[in-house]
Amino acid sequence: MKIIMLGAPGAGKGTQAKQIASAYGIPHISTGDIFRANIKNQTPLGKKAKEYMDAGNLVPDELTCDLLMDRIGQDDCEDGFVLDGFPRTIPQARALGKALTARGESIDFAINVEVPDENIIRRMSGRRVCPSCGATYHLVALPPEKEGVCDACGSELIQRADDSEATVANRLQVYHEQTQPLIDYYEREGVLKTVDGTQPMDVVFAQIKAILGNEL
Ligand code: AP5
Ligand code: ZN
Which residues form the Adenylate kinase active site lid domain (predicted)? Predict the structure, then answer.
C-alpha cells in the first residue's frame, strides 16, 4: 500500500505515519527526518538543507526529489510505504507520479490530517523530540514518563530548532502557499481522504484504519 500524509506542520503526520508503518508493516519515510539526520552527520546535503530548514522554508525540489526517488527505489519499499512530508509542492507531486507510473504503480491513499492554524501553534510549542532515537513527545498530549527524558532510550529531549514561534509562523505560511494546493491535486487523482486531526491521537488513528482497512 502506498500512502502519502498531507497536512500542516505539526498536524500529526509523523505521529500517525509511525503507527501506520508499524500496523501495516511498511517503511515510514520522512524527508524531514532524512534531512535532520544529514544535518546531524554534517553531510554536504545536510549543510545545504540546514539554512532552508532553520528559516522554515522548503528545501529546493531538486535536492528533495532525487533523495526521495532513491529511497522509494530500495528493496524495503516493494510492498509500499508511507510518505511523511513529501510531496510538498506540485512539482514534487508530479515527479513522484511520474516515477511511480514508470514502475506501473500509483498512490493508493493521500491522507489529509486537518488541523486549524490556531491549534498548530500550541502543538509546536509543546513538542519535544529525542535527538538519539527520533521519538516525539508533547508536554501536554504525550508527556514522557520522566520529565525531559526519552522513554525509549533515556536521552535528554530537545525542542526542534524550527519550532520557535517565528519559524512556525513562516512554516505555516509556506504550507498554505506551496503545499495546500496538493489537497486539490490528490482530490482530482481520486485518492484524497481527510481525517479530523484535532481529535486525540488514538481517535485519529482509528479514523485512518477505517480508511485503509485490511488492505496491504
Ligand atoms: P518536517 O519534518 O516534515 O516538518 P513538518 O511538515 O513541518 O511537520 P512536523 O514534523 O513539524 O509535524 P507533524 O505533522 O509530523 O506532527 P507531529 O506528529 O510531530 O519538515 C521540516 C523541514 O524540512 C521543512 O520545513 C522543510 O524545510 C524541510 N523539508 C522536509 N520535507 C521537505 C520536502 N518534501 N520539500 C522541501 N523541504 C522539505 O506532531 C506535532 C506535535 O503534536 C507532537 O508534539 C505530537 O506529540 C503532538 N500531536 C500529534 N498528534 C496529536 C493529537 N492528535 N493531539 C494532540 N497532540 C498531538
Ligand atoms: Zn530516544
Answer: 127-162
Are 193 and 211 in contact, with CB atoms under 8 Å apart? yes
Q: Is the CB of 85 under 6 A from ligand 1?
A: yes
Q: Are strands 81-84 and 28-30 parallel, antiparallel or unpaired?
A: parallel
What is this model's ipTM? 0.96
3-state secondary structure of 157: coil
**Cβ proximity of 36 and 136 under 8 Å:** no
Grid cell locating 67: 533523495
What is the percent of the chain with per-residue pLDDT over 90, rounded to a whole number? 94
25: Cβ contacts below 8 Å, ≥ 6 apart = 79, 216
Amino acid at 196: D
194, 6 Cβ separation under 8 angstroms: no
Is residue 178 a known part of a binding site? Answer: no
Return the ligand 1 atom nearest residue 200 CA: 53
Question: How many other β-carbons are positioned within 10 Å of the β-carbon of residue 188?
Answer: 9
Find the catalytic residue in 18, 71, 122, 160: 160
Q: How far is Cα 80 from Cα 107, in angstroms, rounded to an integer?
A: 9
167 in ligand 1 pocket by Cβ < 6 Å?
no
Whether the predicted pLDDT of 215 surpasses 60: no
The model's pLDDT over 158-205, given as tens digits with 9 standing for 90+, comes to 999 899 888 999 999 999 999 999 999 999 999 999 999 999 999 999
pLDDT of residue 99 exceeding 70, the answer is yes
Cell numbers that stand for 168 in this block:
512556525
